[in-house]
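Late entry, evening session. Most of the bench is empty. Finally got around to the prediction I had been postponing all week. Sequence below, unchanged from the version circulated by S.P.
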Amino acid sequence: PPPPPAVAPRAAPPGAGTGGAGGKPLPEGMEGLPAVLDGKYTDLVFLGGGNFGKAFRARSLMDDAHYALKMIPCATPEELDAVKREAKILLPLVHDNVVRYFGSFLHTDSRGVQHYCMVMELCDGDDVSSMIRKARDSRCRLNDGLIGLWVQQIADALRYLHDKGIIHRDLKGDNVLLRRLVAKVADFGLATVSAATHGAAGAFAYESPEQAAGAVYDGKTDVWSLGCMLTECVTLRYVTERVAPGTVFAMDHAAVAAAVSETAAIHPALGALAGRLLHPDPRMRPNSQQVADEMTAQLPALRARAGAGPP
């Protein structure tokens, strides 16, 4: 559960519930949310979401802090079991670069649909994909030191997960949230606890060659996905834009080579790293610990090249 009260519980004001500055229009079925959920969460503000879940910012009456509520509809017992499995993976994880999970409860909406509500650390910044889009729209590049910091932080999060036998399997910019520009790996809905596994999972564009081929794979598949993100941060081109719709980036060797080449043309050191992360043979790819160590060593030079460290 969330941490014990730091202040005396404060009652919800009359009519408290969804809304507030920065909130988006409520999705269908959520209009009748009560002022207080689970007896302790109020001042809900809808942040966004799709068919697989809705995210809200909420204030806890127990400690007056703000949390993220991830509300996932569960129409069948199988769907409920799948979400509980994600929560079970998240529960023991404590790392600066992994979104923290505090607990969960059930809520039934106005249509009678049951939702599994996960109480998470609130990351009130953008995600990495949004930062890429904003940089591209403003016709500027992301700070080299910031890219290096994110890669180092994500790699260290992967090192932590892989040491625990967890393969994320859905690593992409949308699933790396930012809190004061600190990268936090999120969304463990497709994660598996296994030293090695097989089968499709996550976005096709970010699958590793071994995953796309249906072969057995391990944590190196997450390293491949990190390589995709690295090329995106440097070139400001998403890997999905480099291939035809429905095509797996890893299986288009010309597209992979072009992404690495463009990255190297902009930043030789990061391009060389991208080439290693996107090696088609997982045995030749560095593991997450090696990536984290390399980026830690490179950070001073990256910050100097950018002229200043990240804010």
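Two things to note before I forget:
Strands lie at 41-50, 53-60, 66-73, 101-108, 114-120, 166-167, 176-179, 182-185, 192-193.
The longest strand covers residues 41-50.
Will write this up properly tomorrow.
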